[in-house]
Amino acid sequence: MLNWKNLDTLASYEELKKVEPVNVAEVMSGENGAERVKNYSIPMMDGLTYNYAAKAVDEKVLAALAKLAEEAQLIEKYESLYNGAVINTGEKRLVLHQLTRGQLGNDVVADGVNKRDFYVSQQERIADFANKVHAGEITNAAGEKFTTVVQIGIGGSDLGPRAMYLALENWAKVNNKFKMEAKFISNVDPDDAAAVLNSIDVAHSIFILVSKSGTTLETLTNESFVKDALAKAGLDASKHMIAVTSETSPLAKSDDYLAAFFMDDYIGGRYSSSSAVGGAVLSLAFGPDVFAEFLAGAAEVDKTATNKDLLKNPEMLDALIGVYERNVLGYPSTAVLPYSQALSRFPAHLQQLDMESNGKSVNRFGEPVDYVTGPVIFGEPGTNGQHSFYQLLHQGTDIVPLQFIGFKNNQIGTDVVIQDSTSQQKLCANVAAQIVAFACGKADENRNKNFEGGRPSSIIIGEQLTPKTLGALLAHFENKVMFQGFVWNVNSFDQEGVQLGKVLAKRVLAHETDGALKVYSDLLNI
Amino acid sequence: MLNWKNLDTLASYEELKKVEPVNVAEVMSGENGAERVKNYSIPMMDGLTYNYAAKAVDEKVLAALAKLAEEAQLIEKYESLYNGAVINTGEKRLVLHQLTRGQLGNDVVADGVNKRDFYVSQQERIADFANKVHAGEITNAAGEKFTTVVQIGIGGSDLGPRAMYLALENWAKVNNKFKMEAKFISNVDPDDAAAVLNSIDVAHSIFILVSKSGTTLETLTNESFVKDALAKAGLDASKHMIAVTSETSPLAKSDDYLAAFFMDDYIGGRYSSSSAVGGAVLSLAFGPDVFAEFLAGAAEVDKTATNKDLLKNPEMLDALIGVYERNVLGYPSTAVLPYSQALSRFPAHLQQLDMESNGKSVNRFGEPVDYVTGPVIFGEPGTNGQHSFYQLLHQGTDIVPLQFIGFKNNQIGTDVVIQDSTSQQKLCANVAAQIVAFACGKADENRNKNFEGGRPSSIIIGEQLTPKTLGALLAHFENKVMFQGFVWNVNSFDQEGVQLGKVLAKRVLAHETDGALKVYSDLLNI
Question: Alpha-carbon distance A73 to A192, whole Å?
Fold first, then answer.
């Protein structure tokens, strides 16, 4: 029987608060520091390691976190989730994104369907469709091959798939896996769709309309934009569009689309990169085998995350260290810093994943909680960030915990030696240097040049960013966010906070406003 | 005589802390709310207004902020800055970015040169060069016109110019001002340069190397990357590259460049968009007249910011409200939310501008301060952000102050009517709705659907995003950050916090490491 309890009712949380805090600068110095870096390390899968040496933890803190994991029943709750319990209580839904990439537990049957079979069948349908597009069996009306795929979607239908596409675009080009260029239209700002449409050859483009409900305002509006453009080019829109939606949506059986691929209510938008939402665009762009590799990487980490031993479970440990930093040490935000230009939009995806999942003030029963929950998440790739906001991270008045990501090898393989090192070596040298600079600091009599250190970070180190390691990275953070939601006792799978804005926007458009809203509407010429 | 005093030594700050806090939800409701929206509004220039109705201020708070502005001598310090005082005390430098766009005070003579004349002369040299490129008078060795310009730079040489380029790209295309496509190479990750080089026609590309010192590691490395690519294409690099640098840098007189344009030590990287750093790439991309318009917009706001009346000075008011939110109300971060896809990278620029300027723990004399300074800054364009992190902004446990930006008209002019409204109307309806949703909230018996409100925001409303309004927006935030630095008594114009990482990275590359740094280097295969 699962106990869903608030964090501040757990005895282990009270114990955790009493553990003496760790002085990061001290423990990371000298040979002790070297030992920590060697030991505070957990393999996530082949070619990917989570290292938490520079976090403010020691044996005592880790022991307390292990107790918290146990008392909060994190693994049991995860088991319950992947075995098909109604974990999304607010919306009374199962939470099944892990099932898109593997079967961790029992068969999950919902709505009379084995859900693993359902997700696999959609992957197979997408693979078949993508293969036919690539082979020139599915073409435009003139019998010519499609060269570009455009995803129309917003939020989870945009950020995750876009970040994954950008992460693999260069890898695919180098590895002969690049099939079609992908573009993305998301914003209701008409200039977004117009600019993308101006940049492509619509006659050879296939559009993916992604909306679970089939009612997302931005997405339907942008669909019309695209249909207009196709009509103006004398093209039959229904030969250029496919839909990714739920089987019950109005888009599912419409003749407006060449094909429709299905997701369901058990996969939240921000968790949908491994569903048909990411599957269609990534399979078209890179081929179904690349998407399958991506899923395999995610599945491996989903499995790693089932380990009850905290020190062998990087997802659970990362989650608990985050809770410790947020609730005990009192740090309000976290930066995600991938040293990889290919991960340029990965922080934007994690921003949604984390902040939309755990930015909640009520527990899963709708009762207000008396502690802070999800932090602000932000980030940019290194080394760019070093020349931007790192000043504040090093010397600002607030401490911001850091999540680095680095790879030994780059994707494209072109490099240049300057001052006896390659660019890739410089990139890696910088991330190593930053971790130690943040942790240890450096005393200087000139206080303006003084670095206090004590600024905690962890790093995920990979051999190379590939479909498999990308899938693993994605699953790492999905599972981390899930575990944190369990600790905070919030429902990480709904998003009631986005509703009020929608309601008021409709009122503005219907000119049914008064008070401040009416004046703002006037000022904005609506 | 200027008094440079810490915030917590000012009597007016103590008074400010005693003023009764404003209940945003209450004051923004009903007809009172409507009146506030009408009244709490200041013109920044023609076609641009700063509205702060939804901020947690009232007559009493505003009066206290006005006293603080006076006691902290904000206008006097600004005057001192633009008249050429050594405001950047740590580096013993003048701070002259405003002088690139206008003369607000006395002639400023430094190093024997009238600096306004110097900046104007560089603008003229750039204009002449750009006009010749556009006219086909300066061409590649084959006598063919250049079609692409690539900026090689990082930090301030990248983020600002890139954000400005993206902000005006579509506007320029529609208004017949688009001369050349611009691309940017910044990261030392070799995949950044390789991907950009793979995406362009190097034979028709002109590269701008931007480095004030001429020694920035990333930029010099990427220059070599580009030179390799040019050599491989059988091209003479010196016919394809120009430099933007200081007159004393090794790049200034090198034969490696077709031309060199100059900046100086009195313009910090993050304040350099209106100098030659932004000027070269924007003049080449859009023509010198567009860049001149951009400067004119910035100059207008620089002038507005000289107004001693707080209620007629949006830059100073925005700054003081930010300080009130940070130091009195205790909010640790701020989100920048432009409802304009063209401003997609504007938040990333502001992130550098703000966090690198005011993320400091010591005052301008190098003494530790006992209060918090610059906040974490993050943001994405709306409506995209609504489907991402707004959940936390609406219902998270921390309050995040918000800075909206919205325009009545889009740039491209294409639009589509769905459900009786255009996309532009939907975009504007959403920003209006969000302000009121954040401010007023909405009570619901289901606590999960309850919105407490009281989440403060301001909005800058413009007619359209044009070169002029973009310049104004840039200057608004530059001046805001400057005023906040004055209030916090920090030096907003140095960045000592970036140095330690550089030193350690060099040590890693020289294999002169021990302890933790050595182990990280090994783990990363350096």
Answer: 45
On whether the CB atoms of residues A489 and A4 are closer than 8 A, the answer is yes
For A221, which of B36, B416, B520 is closest by C-beta distance?
B416
Q: How far is residue A368 CA from its own chain's centroid?
A: 27
- Of the candidates A471, A435, A466, A168, the residue with the CA atom closest to the CA atom of residue B526: A435
Chunked in runs of 10, what are the mean pLDDT values of chain B (526 residues)?
Answer: 96 98 97 97 96 98 98 98 95 97 97 97 98 98 96 97 98 98 97 96 98 88 95 95 94 92 96 98 98 98 98 98 98 98 98 98 97 98 97 98 98 92 97 98 95 97 98 98 98 96 96 96 96
Architecture of the domain delimited by A113-294: 3-Layer(aba) Sandwich (3.40)
> Is A387 noted as a catalytic residue in this protein?
yes
Beta-sheet strands, E only, within B89-180: 109-110, 113-114, 148-152
Handedness of CA B185, B189, B195, B201 (dihedral sign): positive
- Look up the CATH architecture of domain B7-71+305-494: 3-Layer(aba) Sandwich (3.40)
Structure tokens at B513: 């490491």
Answer yes or no: do B501 and A434 touch at CB < 8 A: yes
What is the distance, to the nearest Å, from the Cα of residue A73 to the centroid of all Cα atoms in its chain?
A: 24
Q: Which residues of A touch B218 (CB under 8 A)?
A: 383, 387, 426
Is A240 designated active site? no
What is d(CA B221, CA A443) in angstroms, rounded to the nearest whole number?
Answer: 30
With CB atoms and an 8 Å threshold, state whether B397 touches A373. yes
Segment (H or E) for B331: none
Contact B409, A218 (CB under 8 A): no
Q: Of B354, B405, B345, give the one whose Cα is nearest residue B377.
A: B354
Question: Whole-model pTM above 0.80?
Answer: yes
A232 is catalytic: no
Would you say the CATH fold of A113-294 matches that of A7-71+305-494? yes
Domain boundaries, chain A: 7-71+305-494, 113-294, 496-526
Interchain CB distance below 8 Å, B340 and A189: yes
Hey, what are A522's tokens? 């006037």
Distance from CA of A254 to the nearest CA of B (A): 19
ipTM of the complex: 0.97
What pLDDT digit, counting tens, does each position of A295-326 carry? Answer: 999 999 999 999 999 999 999 999 999 999 99
Helix (H) or strand (E) holding B338: strand B333-339
Which of these is catalytic: B38, B173, B387, B426? B387
The torsion region of residue A515 among left (phi > 0), alpha (psi -120 to 50) and beta comes to left
- Distance (Å, whole) CA A191 – CA B484: 34
Distances from the Cα of A256 to the Cαs of A132, A140, A152, A250, B409, in angstroms? 19, 15, 15, 11, 31
Please state, in angstroms and rounded to a whole number, the distance separating the CA atoms of residues A263 and A258: 17
Cβ-defined contact of B519 to A155 (cutoff 8 Å)? no
CATH of domain B100-294: 3.40.50.10490
The three-point CA angle A53-A59-A62 to 5° equals 80
- The single-letter DSSP state of residue A214 is S
Q: What is the DSSP string of B69-111?
A: HHHTTHHHHHHHHHTT---BTTTTB---GGGGT---SS--EET
